[in-house]
Design goal:
By secondary structure, the protein is mainly α. It has one domain. 53% of the residues lie in helices and 3% in strands. The strands form two sheets. It has a two-stranded antiparallel ribbon. It has a two-stranded antiparallel sheet with strand order 3-4. The protein starts with a helix and ends with a helix.
């Protein structure tokens, strides 16, 4: 039944570690039930991650709107002066215009019908894709009185001296890129277990693995999720559910295949 409802090719991804590299055959004792257990673990993990990523995304949208509102301009997204690269600005404008025109949301229709089609930032941000949000933030100007500086006040962290500091723009956008990639993986029901992920978020010094791993995995992504957490309480709930999931599948799940170090709980 599993081969017809899940498929051999998808299931094989959960058995790579059970194949002897010298013979290219499954090791003695390998059974389908173990592979299926890993598949179900991965499905539940994907659902858990996607749920929390949605919370991160909603909070980021809200905080982005609030940050731009220091300009007191409801149409600020149309102003190239607050963005660094003008060519990128116009490329993003084209994408945003397309996202607005495709929307059937009542608040977009309201602005079409009552405000001559002028759509304020709080409405625009709701219909922008997460990728467009990421590109918009990446192109924001920085500075002590900028909207970007207002945005990152929500994402302070403690440095090695115990001081609260704001992330740099490169660091902050690397976190957003990392969670965006994981969001897409979850949305497309792709495998997470025993997978390398081609993104390198800039980690806080105390969370860096030494020596540096050759590849990144879920550990680095989840740290980015921690840095972007909407609230500490929501993160605590998420980590508790993650630990419970690991415990439920402790018979088949090897945390090292998610690229986690042995002391991973200290970092979460």
């Amino acid at each position: 039944m599993a081969l017809t409802t899940i498929g051999y090719y998808r299931l094989k991804g959960y058995s790579f570690h059970l194949i002897d590299p010298s013979t290219k055959k499954y090791m003695a004792g390998t059974n389908l039930s173990e592979v299926l257990r890993l598949y179900h673990f991965d499905s539940e993990l994907s659902n858990l991650l996607f749920s929390y990523l949605s919370q991160i995304e909603v909070a980021l949208r809200s905080r982005l709107v609030n940050a731009f509102q220091i300009t007191q301009d409801a149409l600020i997204l149309n102003d190239p002066s607050v963005f660094k690269d003008k060519k990128t600005f116009w490329k993003n404008q084209s994408t945003i215009a397309s996202e607005i025109s495709r929307s059937n949301d009542v608040f977009i229709e309201h602005n079409f019908n009552n405000h001559d089609g002028a759509v304020p930032i709080w409405a625009v941000v709701e219909v922008m894709s997460f990728g467009t949000i990421s590109k918009t933030i990446k192109n924001m100007k920085t500075g002590s009185n900028s909207s970007f500086s207002e945005l990152i006040k929500n994402y302070k962290f403690q440095n090695s001296n115990g001081r609260d500091v704001n992330p740099s723009k490169d660091m902050f956008t690397s976190w957003i890129q990392a969670v965006s990639i994981m969001r897409n993986i979850c949305a497309h029901n792709s495998r997470i277990y025993n997978r390398t992920i081609s993104t390198r978020p800039q980690l806080i010094y105390s969370d860096i693995i030494n020596p540096h791993p050759r590849y990144n995995g879920l550990y680095q992504i989840m740290l980015s999720m921690k840095y972007l957490r909407p609230t500490q309480e929501s993160w605590t709930v998420f980590v508790t559910e993650f630990k419970q999931l690991l415990n439920n599948y402790s018979d088949v799940c090897d945390i090292r295949r998610l690229n986690f170090p042995s002391d991973w709980e200290n970092h979460f």
